[in-house]
Each structure stands twice: as C-alpha cells, then as structure tokens.
Write a structure and sequence with these properties.
The chain is of the alpha/beta class. It has 10 helices and 14 strands.
C-alpha cells in the first residue's frame, strides 16, 4: 500500500537519509458511499482519490432503511460490473451520513433529516457485498479528507463549516478530529439560535438549522416567489433584491453564531464548504457579516476548500484510509 519515492533532499547529516513514502494509488480501490438528505452518491476511487467510476440515486426516506441499503448495494454491484471492477480488488467501503454515528459498530444513531432511529449500516452493506465497511459522520469524514488531502496537510488547527441542506461542522485540533465524549462535537446546526423557536428534528426548539438550512430558506422564499422559488434559488440569487434581503438575514444569523464558536476554539483557519458557499457572492457576504462581529479578523482566516468539487465522491476514502492506517499501527 505504501511506496518509496526516494531519499529526501536535506542538509548533510549523520546516518542514513530520510526516505520519502507515499500511498500507492493502484494498490486497491475503495467504495465511497456519501448519503445526503436528498441524494446518495456512490463512487469507486483509487487510493489517492481519483474517481474511477460513480453514480447516484435519490435518498428515499419513505421506504424501509434495509430496503434502501439493498438498493444502494444493487447500484454498487452494477457499477462494479459495468466498469470491470473485481470485488476482490476493492479494499472496503466507507459510508458517510449526517448525524451521530457509532463508528465502532458501524451504526447510524440518528441522521435527523433522513432517519431518526438507529440503522446498522455496516451490517446491511457487508451482508450484500462481503467487504469491510466503515461508517462515519459526513462532516467528520470531510475533516479527515481535509487532513489528508487539503489544508490540513499544513495547518493543524481548523474549523470546518458546511452550509447546505443542513448546517454542520467539524473541529480539527493538532491534526486530529475532535469527537467529544458522545461523538457529537461540533453539531452547530443544533445550537439554539432562537429562544422557543421552530421545532427541530432533533426534538429541540429554535435550532440554527431550522432557520438557515436550504430547506428553511426555500420556505421563506416561497412565501415571496411562490412556485418560482427554484428558479430564484440559483447562482444569481443575490441579483434579486427581495431574495437577497432574506439570504442576508440568514447569513447574519449564521455569522453571529459562528463568531461565538470561534471565540472558544481559536482555530488557525475556517474552511468553508457546501452548496450555499458555492453560490456566487455568498462567501464574500458571509465574511462581511462576520466582520461586523469581529472587525479584527484577518482576510485569510476564511478559506474555501479546494476539495469542494469532488467531496461528494471521495470523502469516504480518507475515512477508510485512516481506519486502515490505525489498524496497521
């Protein structure tokens, strides 16, 4: 799995020179299954994240979870067959999913917007595919990807903020993901933003996510634009003054809450990912709103992830690599 790259260039020193090593991309492939609230992405990658083939299917919340995961494994089998991938050459599968996860037992404990009961994800997939399976929270998986392939290679303390169908985050301290005693650290979408506010899927009231998620935003836009809301909710969102006012209010709420988090954590950088930050002008408006609460923040404090475009297909790879490397050690 590891290949030597040769001796490191360094000043003269006693003893043998350091040998540089790297992951062998062709050693095996990894199956990555990224379950989001609306779409489930399936990809097979090499050991360094190159996507060999991929597909997707709707995340069907209405059917029994076991049936849904049978649909996923059927799609995986089709993907293997169509692309000539021999299952014996697949090192394993990594499944990423929103909400709290029991990684040790491969169980999704509560995915909030998808299922509220515990789902034995690893068992369902291993039963059909017969390969090792690792299950992880999607934001923690992304943070692991950032550590291996992104800014985390050079910066040890990061806060990863994802804004899209939901609002989530992950904390990287000294190059490692902070889990918390109940594996639920950084669930910022479920911080209380409004006292006695809207009901949330987590059974609390007034959670941040119930106001700033794409679902919540679309509901407010619908009251103004009716059935045309989807045509407004695109890359030209801020060109419409009425829509812009609604989004700016949500940006301000998010920025205010993030400022409170940053005060406690003091990370080197905040990495921004997710659909909302991909809308033209949204990052700039978010930073401007944040600076109202912290005018001393540096211009390079917020960083758009360089991995955003491929993360739906490869975030599981870092999770699986981390599991393999920990086992090897």
């Amino acid at each position: 799995m590891i290949v030597e790259l040769g001796e490191a260039n360094e000043e003269k020193r006693a003893g043998r020179k350091k040998i540089l090593v790297d992951i062998n991309p062709g050693y095996r492939s990894v199956l990555c299954i990224a379950i989001e609230s609306d779409v489930t992405y399936i990809a097979v990658t090499d050991m360094k994240g190159k996507v060999l083939c991929n597909t997707s299917l709707p995340t069907d919340k209405e059917i029994d979870p076991e049936e849904f995961f049978k649909n996923i494994t059927d799609e995986c089998q089709k993907l293997f067959w169509k692309n000539g991938i021999v299952k014996e050459k697949v090192l394993g599968a990594a499944v990423t999913i929103p909400g709290s996860v029991d990684r040790k037992n491969g169980v999704s404990l509560n995915s909030y917007n998808i299922w509220t009961e515990s789902i034995p994800v690893a068992s369902y997939i291993k039963k059909e595919l017969g390969i090792p399976v690792v299950v992880e929270n999607n934001l923690k998986a992304y943070a692991q990807t950032e550590i291996y392939f992104g800014l985390g290679r050079t910066v040890n303390n990061l806060f990863v903020l994802k804004w899209g169908p939901g609002v989530g985050a992950s904390i990287i301290i000294d190059g490692k993901i902070y889990q918390g005693s109940n594996k639920m650290a950084a669930e910022i979408g479920h911080m209380i933003a409004i006292k006695d506010g809207r009901d949330c899927n987590c059974k609390r009231k007034g959670c941040l996510e119930t106001y700033v998620s794409t679902k919540a935003i679309k509901q407010e836009l619908k009251s103004v634009f009716g059935k045309n809301v989807d045509s407004v909710f695109n890359s030209e969102l801020f060109d419409n003054p009425k829509a812009s006012d609604i989004i700016d209010d949500k940006i301000d709420m998010l920025a205010r809450n993030i400022r409170n988090v940053i005060t406690m954590l003091d990370p080197k950088n905040v990495v921004l990912i997710g659909y909302m930050f991909e809308i033209s002008g949204c990052v700039e408006r978010f930073i401007k709103a944040y600076k109202k609460y912290d005018p001393l923040v540096s211009d390079d404090f917020f960083v758009r992830s360089t991995l955003s475009e491929s993360i739906d297909h490869t975030e599981g790879l870092a999770v699986f690599l981390n599991e393999v490397l920990l086992t090897q050690n």
